[in-house]
Amino acid sequence: MWQAEHVRARLAALYPQCSVEILGMTTRGDQILDRTLSKVGGKGLFVKELEVAMAEGRADLAVHSLKDVPMELPEGFELAAVLEREDPRDAFVSNDYASLAELPPGAIVGTSSLRRQSLIAARYPQLVIKPLRGNLDTRLGKLDRGEYAAIILAAAGLIRLGLPERIRALLEPEDSLPAAGQGAMAIEIVRGERSDGVDLKALLAPLNHDATARAVTAERKVSKIFGGSCQIPLAAFATVEGTTMRLRAMVATPDGLRSAHGEVAGSWDYPDFLGEQVSILLDSQDAHGILEACRQEAAAADPAAAANASQDA
Ligand SMILES: NCc1[nH]cc(CCC(=O)O)c1CC(=O)O
């Protein structure tokens, strides 16, 4: 809702003659709180209901956290704009400890992200990772009630909701490489002109942030190459300086014991190419073997879920 309101306010400032209304919706991703997303169908759960509303003409655009948007949109939909990225880093949140390194052995860390789980398990094998779902208030409430010693959240969500003081430490990309698209918002529309001839994409173009859009294109290329199953800890993070893009990526097993890392840099004019190049680097460290191991492990644990799952960042 914060994100929708942000887009509404920006459109109202750009087009004072237009009225922009928010149609609040709850998605399956918001409702399913007892299971990790990877087990119930992944990212698509946050966008499907909004696409139905657009297809039925009840809404013209949908505002998403880009991290939750599947790599391939259904036929007839497109991303019209990617907004300037908020802080893309993961945040360490705790009432009693200042950093992951300070946590005592056996301390319980909350996260339902396989990527965060894998990174923590690799560096801090003495910690215990427990699932954590729900909206931000729910997650913080569980921390405050002592169910966890610490939790890991996207800094962007805490900042947007006015809770930056809850961030005890920001995890640097070197330690916790962000998920593809983390911290960026995207606006999805029905492809093509509206029936009344309005070109929504052109109207939304001023909201597009070029450097962010190029960076997330590279990141999402990596997700596309290795994606398809939510059972995979996957990170992809691009930064832009001038017209040079630097792209880092990682795939790993959930236990963090096997991982592949890569980094490339090049012109920001070829984000897909950079995504392919870094994927080749990962493959030279047996990334596909790692993914296969993840798939087999997931299928053994829960065959039905593994069959229809997609990426949960
Ligand atoms: N998967 C849920 C989700 N999708 C986007 C964000 C945070 C905001 C963002 O990354 O833009 C979160 C929560 C989290 O990761 O803590």
What does this structure look like?
The structure is a single chain. The protein has helices spanning 2-14, 28-31, 37-40, 48-55, 114-123, 136-144, 155-160, 200-204, 210-226, 271-283, 287-301, 303-307; strands spanning 61-65, 77-82, 90-93, 108-110, 128-130, 150-154, 169-171, 185-190, 234-241, 244-252, 259-267. It is of the alpha+beta class. It folds into 2 domains: 2-86 and 180-307, D-Maltodextrin-Binding Protein, domain 2 (3-Layer(aba) Sandwich), CATH 3.40.190; 90-171, 3-Layer(aba) Sandwich (D-Maltodextrin-Binding Protein, domain 2), CATH 3.40.190.10. The chain has a 5-stranded mixed beta sheet, sandwiched between helices. The chain has a 3-stranded antiparallel beta sheet with strand order 1-8-2, with helices on both faces. A 3-stranded antiparallel beta sheet has the order 9-10-11. Strand 4, helix 5 and strand 5 form a beta-alpha-beta unit. The chain is globular, with a radius of gyration of 19 Å. Ligand PBG binds at residues 65, 67-68, 153-154, 156-157, 182-183, 313. The modification S-(dipyrrolylmethanemethyl)cysteine is found at residue 230.
Keywords:
313 residues; 2 domains; 12 helices; D-Maltodextrin-Binding Protein, domain 2; binds the ligand NCc1[nH]cc(CCC(=O)O)c1CC(=O)O; hydroxymethylbilane synthase activity; alpha+beta; globular; 35% helix; three-stranded antiparallel sheet
Assign the CATH class of the largest domain: Alpha Beta
Structural shape: globular
Strand segment count: 11
Kindly state the percentage of residues in helix.
25-40%
Order of helices and strands: HHHHEEEEHEHEHEEHHEEEHHH
